[in-house]
Amino acid sequence: MDVFEQWESDVRGYCRIFPTVFKSASNARQVDENGRSYIDFFGGAGVLNFGHNNMRMKKAIIEFLESDGVAHSLDMSTTAKRDFIEAFVETIMKPRSMNYKLQFTGPTGTNAVEAALKIARRVTGRRSVIAFSHGFHGMTLGSLACTANDYFRNAAGVPLENVTRLSFGHPLDGMAEAYADSSSGLDQPAAILVETIQAEGGVNVATREWLKELQQFAKDTGALFIIDDIQAGCGRTGDYFSFDGMGLDPDVICLAKGIGGFGTPLAMNMIKPEHDKHWSPGEHTGTFRGQGISFVAGREALRYFEDGSFLDGVKTKGARMNERLQDIAKQHSVHWFEVRGAGMIQGLDTKDGELSKKVVAACFENGLLIGGCGTAGRVLKLIPPLTISDDDLNEGIDILENAINKVAEAA
Amino acid sequence: MDVFEQWESDVRGYCRIFPTVFKSASNARQVDENGRSYIDFFGGAGVLNFGHNNMRMKKAIIEFLESDGVAHSLDMSTTAKRDFIEAFVETIMKPRSMNYKLQFTGPTGTNAVEAALKIARRVTGRRSVIAFSHGFHGMTLGSLACTANDYFRNAAGVPLENVTRLSFGHPLDGMAEAYADSSSGLDQPAAILVETIQAEGGVNVATREWLKELQQFAKDTGALFIIDDIQAGCGRTGDYFSFDGMGLDPDVICLAKGIGGFGTPLAMNMIKPEHDKHWSPGEHTGTFRGQGISFVAGREALRYFEDGSFLDGVKTKGARMNERLQDIAKQHSVHWFEVRGAGMIQGLDTKDGELSKKVVAACFENGLLIGGCGTAGRVLKLIPPLTISDDDLNEGIDILENAINKVAEAA
Amino acid sequence: MDVFEQWESDVRGYCRIFPTVFKSASNARQVDENGRSYIDFFGGAGVLNFGHNNMRMKKAIIEFLESDGVAHSLDMSTTAKRDFIEAFVETIMKPRSMNYKLQFTGPTGTNAVEAALKIARRVTGRRSVIAFSHGFHGMTLGSLACTANDYFRNAAGVPLENVTRLSFGHPLDGMAEAYADSSSGLDQPAAILVETIQAEGGVNVATREWLKELQQFAKDTGALFIIDDIQAGCGRTGDYFSFDGMGLDPDVICLAKGIGGFGTPLAMNMIKPEHDKHWSPGEHTGTFRGQGISFVAGREALRYFEDGSFLDGVKTKGARMNERLQDIAKQHSVHWFEVRGAGMIQGLDTKDGELSKKVVAACFENGLLIGGCGTAGRVLKLIPPLTISDDDLNEGIDILENAINKVAEAA
Amino acid sequence: MDVFEQWESDVRGYCRIFPTVFKSASNARQVDENGRSYIDFFGGAGVLNFGHNNMRMKKAIIEFLESDGVAHSLDMSTTAKRDFIEAFVETIMKPRSMNYKLQFTGPTGTNAVEAALKIARRVTGRRSVIAFSHGFHGMTLGSLACTANDYFRNAAGVPLENVTRLSFGHPLDGMAEAYADSSSGLDQPAAILVETIQAEGGVNVATREWLKELQQFAKDTGALFIIDDIQAGCGRTGDYFSFDGMGLDPDVICLAKGIGGFGTPLAMNMIKPEHDKHWSPGEHTGTFRGQGISFVAGREALRYFEDGSFLDGVKTKGARMNERLQDIAKQHSVHWFEVRGAGMIQGLDTKDGELSKKVVAACFENGLLIGGCGTAGRVLKLIPPLTISDDDLNEGIDILENAINKVAEAA
């Protein structure tokens, strides 16, 4: 570990939680340089929905490389991008009767959110964005202003303005009336920015009713309704979008993480055509917008959604994860553990950051990679690759259960 | 082009300047789907220092993929990252007696700049950053505040605060005294953020004297001196850093674009150890910080700097580019063209955005990809791959010369 | 009216509502240059608690002038200021066992609020202030940020930052918990700034319970609890402070308007000694802080509070005002009029800005000066001098009643 | 002094410099409660241009009081205000062929500046105001943002935004071009706000040439040109406006301090009619805008300007002050004292705040009230009443000279 300690910045975090040097990885397994194999419930923080080194993607990428495909194209047109767009339109948008324009922003989630905020402010001519407690949207100043956690916010070193914070999941009684009152002192919102499931915030799951209320509130105030589906989208919940079937019609949808499929960066905003036309060419740019490898892998990822079998599998495995966690919670009823989630994003809220930290460490010792989220990291978040085998899934949960038993007994 | 027009966002820009669909690319050549080949003087906006589909990198990447290397690792430790770090330390830092900690930020330039601003504000406890007219540092709100161009700034939709703007290259007479005066009304700066060569801003080259004056000003005011070497670094000027040999000692150096080598994203800040220790673990994060493919390709890129021969070649080709442009300027002395640059970033300032636009179009017609920069895009910027063959370089400049002749005659 | 139309700024407002030229005034009567007499229910927007040209004050001022008293002293010590301070301590503070330091700010309410915000931010080291919908605190940028009304806010021309807005009178369930959660994304408050009765905001009267809840919330979050008693204080409600007897213990109390007594400017903050010591000398200044005439008149005003008889009279007259308004409301039950107030600040909420405007105009026609407040001016606000005679009070309400009858019938 | 120490806020400043309790005052003399008489070179910080208890004003005020004149009128029309306006138009504006609308803002300088900034931002639709190092414009957040001194700025507790700071008196070479360049990163200014003589800032006198350059710069950029003549206007420099005869044509002129004449508050903006029409009625308000006593006294003040004799006297006395100070400076050439000023505002820059403080203290001991200004208070500022007798003026300077000799010798 010397090289990292000596030369890499002290800001690094996950290497302290998973203190080894990884050498290879395949589907839901990572192997360190000593040959030790770990089951991966961390899933690249939501990126690796289709597993490490997904075979189909790997094959497609190597072919692309060997054919001298255009690896880097900014926002020029390439055949690889066209293939991706066509597949996305056919596989995802058409079956849902969706009509959106696709913007490839800088290839990270934070860049997608920044671009979404820009277009919302441009369309409405307003500054203030409504975001939510426990929300996470990125680290650059525009999206960081929408992120709730103090630890990240304090690193900004400047006031984070132009955001009004509401309580996630809290009913909006009378809000539209308050905003309509010219003596309320409330800034008219440019946008409402929400995650349907707050992943980093603690696997907090919004109800359909509340999301519809939010959408109506956006309509009433003339704000854009933006869903940040960066971690919960791309199949994670058992549907392609986390809000499929809820009757929602967002103005902008932010995607990243799982959209590229292989772990190489890609980010894409879906924007209603009537809003998109407010952009002028090149007004929001970024060097790495056109990622050939990510387009190729992302195109392969879309094949998983050509029929419903893959998502059915996600639902089945998600139900099992939930059941097992409910069991664990029941066994430890004295701790008031709480299970939350949808599909294959499941959280076990231990209500106790210290306990959670010890469980994470014990899991690592026993060959499972899992991370904490929520305030003080007190929620154990399970986001294995959607392609994980039943055996690995079961074994991973066994390790988790044992770790919890051990830690909880000692507490 | 239909798919892009129908489904891709109107914000796309370069596809309008280079209106074709690219299918493959090799070193300094891009080929469209009709088989037409273009010489590339655009170089992925500074990313493709080692050419499209660089053979050595391609080979290394395919091997990495076939061995199931860890493609995505956030800030966990991997063998691929260690190889990169070791090579960077040995090849770049040690020969220069440099001592920096390396931070892999989110993999785009704007993310590197945002992280650099955070650490500067953290270290100094101050808010205000000094940036320069014509500077370009990215599109997210923190770095956009430092970017000078109105077209980009207006897209923010919110006031861009906490930045004081000075004139690039303008002497700093009396500035330190002014800042020391408690009645000056000037905010003490957290950082001075500067490009040694403003690439997007119009290929404006700072003198060594001015940069040393700036560095002294930073010392006098207690600000961090940050060089954004994202476009001008990684060999572009004929040295590894654009400021090599100037006797500068920046507190933070921002790198991206060329550091990954192949066109896949990577960004890295070099931070003086005494500043780096102000970070707390995980305070600045980002999903795509650990890019295996980029580490592998970037490690290959570093081999070009193991001895001086590659950089000698850059200097030789750069000198030729400059000579040819000087000749062109002389032929059109009536237009007061101006040539500026260093190594293989060279700009021809036509002083006329309309003329420049026509030249770009004429070049494209004749098989050369070249972009404009500076106010109204009036400066033709030549940043071919450093690995371009002499023949392609000459042919490209011939095409440019003919285009200028044609357009200038018609004007 | 020519001179005003020709030379005075278009920004003037009240002269349009009361379109005549006033020449003299005495207690609750103003007389215009044509000799027409008006009963004054407007009371100088809350300044003239002791009537126009209060005889005792007038006498004291003339004596002061004839003795060459110090009319203007900034924050130097003068005998006139000492007399005022001593009387305030003896008459107001000691009977209430209050311990506050007195700060004479620039002599307008907005200046007092700005100073209060400064000390709160200094004491806490925080930026954000909690203020309320329908609140009114002044027109300069610091206090305007706390003012809710859009009409005033839009005139700023800059974003009004560093204020979080809550709904006036709305229960604070779970707020302290939310603020204690490091993932709430809520800025820790420097202060809670509240009027016990929102005068400009529509005569909205806070309950004792809610105010105590607010005070507890301030304690829980470490914020200063600031009561802006500028319009409701100095005897207006039948007590000296509007919150007398509520068991409140504010950190800062802002006074202005009635404190000077005669209509000449004065403003004074009462600050808990432990907070006051955070000021450095001269850090918050202002040319007109030491107003000799206002000190002399203000000292006379304090004599009204040496025993309870004056306040008893206020309570009696206030009760009568309320009864009469309740009667009027009852007669017009079809309009859902609502009566709100305390002591001699009483509002009749007509729920209809157009109707209210017509009533104001009809009153003026018939010799009564009265103003509207609240959203669209829909609330008729009665704030006659506390010294008004029973006859003038009755006659004024008769005029009002007739006007309402006339306007309501026509509606 | 006990009462003040015990009950008045620690923020008070001047009472520490002049540690006695004043009881009466007449023209250029203040007398403390022990009967000690002081010559007043402090002049109420520029308010008392016509002396303490000016006989003509005192008489007019008492008559006004005895006739029950309207002491407080907000922005209603009164005969007293009309008299003032008519006199101002006839005496000041018409002889200068000026055409301005008069806005009576809240009656302090800071309120006038806040109103001026609002109208400038409204007219231009821009946010950023250009202000100058060493400038002083008030303590409320809008004007404080324009004030340069750190001591005052730090008390804000929030970032002071929307102001760009330039160096006072520094040539503007190339500024208009820089602002016209869309890649300069400079915000287009809403206004340029300048004092022709920075009084609090250290008696820094702008040249006519620089002011004309500024005005041209404002025109070129479409900004409003605002002169803050609050301390230097109303006769102080030997002309009514400090910029009389310079060929300037400001868009807005801010007046306060001397405009009311007697020491009671008044503030007035003069606004070009084409700008004034951007106000909506009542958009900028304030309780104490209509000050009857100040109108009456201010109307008397205007009589001093009906012919040139008074201003001639100011010029003569100002010249004497300057000569005497030059002599003093010459005697102490070893200290590099510098004399600056115009008319009866004269400053002796001692270049040493500690020395200056001792001189102020020694003057007080010997019966002279004088204040320091500029960085660390190093500049002794002489602003006696314009009506001071020759004897008092000479005696005051004698005291000052002796104090300097004593202190300088000891240094």
Automatic annotation (TrEMBL), chains A, B, C, D:
The record's annotation in InterPro entries points to: Aminotrans_3, Aminotrans_3_PPA_site, Dat, PyrdxlP-dep_Trfase, PyrdxlP-dep_Trfase_major, PyrdxlP-dep_Trfase_small
One matching Pfam family: Aminotran_3
Key words of the record: Aminotransferase, Pyridoxal phosphate, Transferase
Does Transferase count among this protein's keywords?
Answer: yes
Its domain of life reads Bacteria
- Cofactor annotation: pyridoxal 5'-phosphate
List the molecular function annotations (GO) for this entry.
pyridoxal phosphate binding; transaminase activity
Transferase as a keyword?
A: yes
Record-stated family:
Belongs to the class-III pyridoxal-phosphate-dependent aminotransferase family.
Entry-linked NCBIfam families: dat, PRK09264.1
Give the protein name, as stated in the record: Aspartate aminotransferase family protein
Q: What is the lineage of its organism?
A: Bacteria, Pseudomonadati, Pseudomonadota, Alphaproteobacteria, Parvularculales
